[in-house]
Design goal:
single chain, 5-stranded antiparallel sheet, alpha+beta, 3 helices
Length: 204
């Protein structure tokens, strides 16, 4: 049997070694591309961190939006992979006035920039006009009672209590003013949700 010993060419070894040295440096460069901006937003009066504050990174030249994030439970925020340039940070709650930092520069010498503590007041929503409308249900059923709301009845302003009771289902009022529910006169009458001494002798 014949054995042949192959010797790789010197040029090929040099090329492979160059690639081996080049690949890690490229990967490292990709991981470290761009800068970062960090900081913490605190309450101006109570001096405690504020959560869920919107933080926006803008270009100083044209106010172009670059990144947006929110603060965590410790009031901290972090903006990553920022190209070199001049920026400023706007921060505040949604619906309230925002505050801005002074312009700063991200460059090769200051890739990791800490803005420190940024003060802001408590969240105050600014609404030009707010109108709340509600409607009370005319009837609702609970465990021990049925409640009828008669405030919208015309007779609540012009009639008597007997007139109102006669319009409620299952309630009867006789000519003497005695009230019965489904034929039973064992009825408890409450005034404004409470018992009254007026019902002691004659409920009619």
């Amino acid at each position: 049997m014949n054995f042949h010993h192959y010797r790789p060419l010197p040029g090929i070894l040099t090329t492979l070694a160059g690639l081996a040295l080049l690949l890690p440096s490229n990967v490292w460069a990709q991981k470290t591309a761009g800068g970062s901006v960090t900081g913490v937003v605190i309450n101006q009066g109570a001096n405690h961190p504020l959560e869920s504050v919107t933080v926006t990174l803008k270009k100083t030249a044209d106010d172009a939006l670059v990144q947006t994030t929110v603060t965590d439970s410790q009031g901290r925020f972090s903006l990553e992979s920022i190209p070199a340039g001049d920026y400023r940070v706007s921060y505040g709650y949604i619906g309230s006035d925002s505050k801005e930092t002074k312009p700063f520069r991200v460059e090769a010498q200051t890739k990791a920039l800490d803005l420190g503590r940024l003060d802001i007041g408590e969240a105050v929503l600014q609404l030009e006009k707010l109108q709340v409308k509600g409607k009370q249900r005319e009837f609702y059923n609970t465990i021990d009672r049925k409640v009828y709301t008669v405030g919208r009845e015309i007779q609540s302003a012009t009639g008597s209590a007997s007139d109102l009771l006669q319009n409620i289902p299952s309630v009867d009022v006789d000519i003497d003013g005695n009230v019965s529910l489904r034929g039973s006169d064992n009825v408890m009458i409450l005034i404004n949700g409470r018992t009254s001494a007026l019902m002691g002798k004659s409920r009619a």
